[in-house]
């Protein structure tokens, strides 16, 4: 299986900032951890990049996943939101 194209931190944030993309945590058998993070639309981000995105001061969890109480979707807001 061909590894997915990996987005850089800056490219992922640009997609989230200018194109309204979201960071999604998806469950998969393709990963040893059983989860992978994707910027949708956009592409795969490494676990390290996903954690860096989540820690960004303007990124917030939407709490709109399938399992209540478990963060699965993150969006980039503005300083005024």
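^ structure tokens above, recovered residues below v
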């Amino acid at each position: 299986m061909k590894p997915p194209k990996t987005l850089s931190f800056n490219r992922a944030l640009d997609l989230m900032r200018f194109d309204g993309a979201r960071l999604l945590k998806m469950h998969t058998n393709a990963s040893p951890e059983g989860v992978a993070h994707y910027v949708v639309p956009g592409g795969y981000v490494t676990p390290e990049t996903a954690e860096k995105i989540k820690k960004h001061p303007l990124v917030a969890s939407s709490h709109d996943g399938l399992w209540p109480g478990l963060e699965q979707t993150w969006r980039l807001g503005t300083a005024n939101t």
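The chain has a mean pLDDT of 85.
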